[in-house]
Amino acid sequence: MESTESKTKTKRKRVSKKTKRQWRKHSNIKDIEDFLEEQRVQERTGGLVAEKEDKDLFVVDSGLPSEEKRPKKKTKYDFRSQPLRCYENLLPNPHIPAVPKAKPRGDKRSRSANLPRVQNKLHGIFTPREAVKIAEARANRKKKRLQMRREDKMRDKLPEQYDIWSEGPKSDLPEKLKNADPFFLRYTKRTRRKVPANYYQKPTKISAVEVVDPGASYNPSFEDHQELLQKVYKDELAHLKTEKHLEQWSKGVTKWPAGKLEENYLQEMSAGLFEEEKKEEKKEEEEETEKSESKNEEDAPLPNPPATAEMRKTRKQRRIQALIRATERQRRAAKDERIRMNDVYRLKKLRNEIKKREEATARKRKKLDEKKEKLAAGTKKFGRNRFEDAPMAFKLSDELVGSLRQLQPEGSLIFDRYKNLQKRNLIEAKVKQRGAKRNLKEYVVKGHKGIK
Amino acid sequence: MGREKKKYTSGAATTYISRTSAIKKLQLHIIDFRRLCILKGIYPVQPKDPKKAGRGARIPKTYFRLKDIQFLAHEPILWKFRERKSHKKKMKKALYKREIKTLQQLVKNKPTYTLDHIVKERYPTFADALRDLDDPLTLCSSFAVLRKNHKIKGELVPLCRRLIIEFMNYVIASRSLRKVFLSIKGIYFQAEIQGQQITWLTPYKLGYQVPKKLDLKIISTFTEFYTTLLGFVNFRLYHSMNILYPPKLFLSSSSTENKDGTSFCLDDEDVSERVASLALDLIKEKSTVNAEAADEEESRTKEDEELIAGANVDTEEYKKAKEEEAKLNKFKKLFENCKFFLSREVPREALTFVIRCFGGKVSWDKLLFIGATYDENDESITHQIVDRPQQAKQHLSRYYVQPQWVFDCVNAQILLPVENYFPGEELPPHLSPFVREKEGDYIPPEKVALLERLEGIKQSDLQASGSQDDEEEEDIIDDVGDDVEEFEAFDEEDLEGESQLMQAEEKRLQQMKEETEKTETGDGSVKKARKRKRKKKSLHVTPGEIIKTDEKEEARLEASQEMKLREMMIPKKKKYIYKKIRQKEQARAKRHKRLTTKREKYEEEQRMKKAEKIQE
């Protein structure tokens, strides 16, 4: 109907409605038919609307929509109640028929023949092979249970109930290997390795618990307190001095002005460009330098003339020269020998000289050893960071309360321990690193909604 | 000529290994590597020449000895670390796949490791372990006061507390505490156990926060190892005293409930909490055996003693040692006859520990902590420790003293007079017992008094000499003619009420009279003498005078001359050292003088202030 209507609209078709048949065919009665159809629908679904009362037709709006209508808000953890996407394949698909269940293979013997064996099993009678298997399984289960219990105990950390220095640590070797060959144990890496040579040497001589100055007492005497303050003051002064020094040093570093920076940038960016122009410039320069060089050549000294046959030494000349050299060598050796022989008369002096030299080296060695020891006793530097001791704990004169109740402790013991471990070279001085920034992906939001 | 040697195939280049390559070699994560190093006691080293160790590169790196790393590679715990790593992966997978059952199973089967063998390896003998106990004790006691923290394993904090409490209980039982020092950081204790001096530091029990600037993972690994060590040490120490380990108590009433139905803790925590109160004696294994041993000690004959000492008993050294032993035994019973009661505001644990270490009895308010043994109204209490200037109700039968008295008594090794420590009184300074002055060093007057007391000089003698000194001082002050100061000199002598002041006033008046008399007579005599001198300028004969010889002065002179001669006899070789020693001595004397004058000046100032106050 609609299609025809639209057609009539677009194409005005003239039809005559002269006859009754034509009239019926072409007159538009859609609105009437629609109305009648609607009435019929209304009658089917609970009576005519026109005849109904207001309260049957409308609902009084009480404000909020009912809870059922409101869409449920998804919580953060809602996804947990849903099956995982990765397991969707494993869910039964109604379109695929189920695989028929495999029939158990069963005993090959007939049922009647198998019956006594089944009955035996029920009565607890097994074949020897089965019996062994069952016993093994039982033993395994017991072993596992015991192990679990032992580990449970360990987890609770019960107090250590044995004397490690008289009994030694409990061996973790399995029972079988308790009496095994030492060679076998060593090659299967079940023996403990010998400790390194300097395992028991302490990394420093600094004591583990350094007692603070008497001035750091909660109620110190006047002298002690003054002395401590003096120490702290000196420390602070030294610190300030180094800081000032560093500041001055950093002043020496030249800072580029903005214009120069830009120039540099341009130069860098244009590296390799405009080569031809530069080449021409270079050529000009080269020509100039060549000219100057040619001038210089005239003044330079002449090189040696090339060697000729006449210049070569004769054999005789060479022989004589060699002879002279040999005699000279001999003469010198003889002289040395003579001097050495003469040393017999200098024995006493020589002995003294040796003694003196030895003493000097011993002295030097001692000094070096002392220096080495001093170095070994102190804090060392591992890696990039140098150890920095925590500032001394102290209280100013007006902070001293003189009563234990009102005392406010200084510093933290754990931090103190941490620094002490560093000081004693047990751990490296570390500077806490901040974590890297989260790497977020950047993208452009498309569409007008994203633009504010 | 042999083959040319390749570079970096021996020497420093091969003895050291950088941290990164060590980690690669052991196939560990850096966190696990650090943990392993700490547990095994392998520490970084600083090679002499970093360029050689770095095979030509001078980049600052952390180095280890290659031998040490090879040693680490053989450690069975290494496998546990690897197991833990894969276990962690499995846990994560199960968690994300929401496989609850697998997760439960995995949690149950978490790979664990024990450190027993490492303890034995690092400390082959018990003495070694004792020698290194300072660090474990300090670290554990600072961990014991921490709050629960997500960065520390949950069981570590209570474990540390338990171990520290056990150790303190041992120190109490063996009476081995020697020194205490209240510093602004915490409390230092020093105990002597089996000939080893062990010093440790405990924090004050106040709101305690973990500082942010440190790596808790590292420090808690140290604690993990130290807890194992302390456990073994405690076991051994308890058994050396025949005490049951873990500690047990005789409890009269097993219920933890108070009268009003509230309770301090759960029933199964009762014993451990009461042990933590430090107020009760622990159960011994066989009490009879020890008693016999004690009897034996008494009935020893001289021959037995000789056998034990391995030398003659009559020698002076032996006698000296014996004397010292007696002194120590007396020191151990310092608070034996005292009964203490602690008020609410004082540090309970430290005081209980110190008092019980010297045989005293302690109790506190029932509501303060579990394990109070007697009430505040008990008439037999001798001392009550308070830290408030005014008390609501006072018992006449006991002294009320500030907590410092207990600690000072321990350091002085005698019961000090309580007068200076009454509540509201300005306390004498708390001196460090860890300072040892050399001969000729400056010693503050407070310590001088203490040392004199220790040597056994009677209090009365001290006072007498003190008053004499004061009189001398008075004379000087009279010359100056300053009334206020003189007044103060008396004031210092004994500060006890108005009667003394009145006496002082009278004395002063008397002295002033005498003075005026003296000056009158003195002036006349001087004038006469001058006149005589003028007259006797002409020739005359005077009777011979006996030259008075000051024996002391002469002796001193002679001694100094002898000293000089002896100095001359010193060979040239040793003269340098002698000179150095002399210089040191002189410097010390100079410092001594400087400090004494400073002190005098300070005291003078204080006196002036006091006088001003009184005048006002």
Automatic annotation (TrEMBL), chain A:
Gene Ontology MF term list: 5S rRNA binding
One record GO biological process: ribosomal large subunit assembly
GO CC field: nucleolus; nucleoplasm
Keywords: Nucleus, Ribosome biogenesis
Compositional bias of kind Basic residues: 9-27
Major site of localization recorded for this protein: nucleus
Stretches for region Disordered: 1-27, 61-122, 267-318
Location(s), subcellular: Nucleus, Nucleolus; Nucleus, Nucleoplasm
Keyword Phosphoprotein: no
Annotated Pfam families: Nop53
InterPro entries: Nop53/GLTSCR2
Entry's family note: Belongs to the NOP53 family.
Job of this protein: May play a role in ribosome biogenesis.
Protein name, per record: Ribosome biogenesis protein NOP53
Source species: Holothuria leucospilota
From TrEMBL, chain B:
Species in which this protein is naturally found: Holothuria leucospilota (Black long sea cucumber)
Pfam families in the record: BRCT_2, Pescadillo_N
UniProt-recorded name of the protein: Pescadillo homolog
Keywords annotated in UniProt: Nucleus, Ribosome biogenesis, rRNA processing
Molecular function GO labels: ribonucleoprotein complex binding; RNA binding
Main localization of the protein described in the UniProt heading: nucleus
Region (Disordered): 505-548, 582-616
Keyword rRNA processing among UniProt keywords: yes
UniProt cross-references to InterPro entries, sorted A to Z: BRCT_dom, BRCT_dom_sf, PES
CDD domains named among the record's database cross-references: BRCT_pescadillo_like (cd17709)
